[in-house]
Amino acid sequence: MEKLHRDLSGKWLVLYPDHDLKNDYQKVVYSKIQDSIVGLSGLKLVTLADDGSFMQLDSLHARGKWGITGEKIVFVENGGKGFENFSAAFTGYEKGVLKLTEYVRAEGEKIRLVWHLKKIRGGSAEELFSNERNTWRKKPIKAESEKEIRQRLSAMLSFYAAYYSLVTKESSFFVPTRVILPLRFYQHAIGMKDFDADGFFAGLFYDRQQAAEAHRYLSVSIRKLRNDFPKMENYVEEYAAFMKLMAQDIAAE
Predict the structure, then answer these.
(1) What is the pLDDT of residues 204-226, one digit of tens each?
(2) Of the candidates 46, 44, 45, 38, which has an alpha carbon nearest to the alpha carbon of residue 19?
């Protein structure tokens, strides 16, 4: 069990759940909940620390715990949205991919899902978990200057550019809501969402006024760079490259 604990300890990208549907009714039931399940946990970056603590980057405020029972049930408690009370059986670990089998109950059915998680080791992908790459997630305790707001935005864009570069290598899909920035993703283009004073993005700034300023800087950068949108093999690669361009543009102002 100690070896299994060591194997599970580390940094992970939650990839996707394979579903094992037993009948047509389960297919109908799962079609109703699939998007919400993937939206809650898919493509999240999580840490299973050796000391038993659990953290997901989308919920740094939530300090959960994880462990594995004698029956090889992996559990997470108080780990933030999607991992408040997660429990799944250890199914296998091979070539850096962990498989965990979870049973989800819906409309009287017990649906079997096998989650795939990719272990992240080294390089720019592992740097995504560092404190330095995530300082922008901490709300400032005082008003920031224009330069500081731009630096915060640039750090966000740089983070998500690296995150999407990882996703495009490891996944055949992406989850737009993983990006806290108020961006809309189109075919060969990125646009802006309307400013939401009560949204997650606004909550990253000192007050609503500074959040609105940040929103405006993003809008200006997108318009400025609209003719420089890259053409690459897939949309996610393009998004990553364009966010990197925006990070450089906003920081340079």
Answers:
(1) 999 999 999 999 999 999 999 99
(2) 38
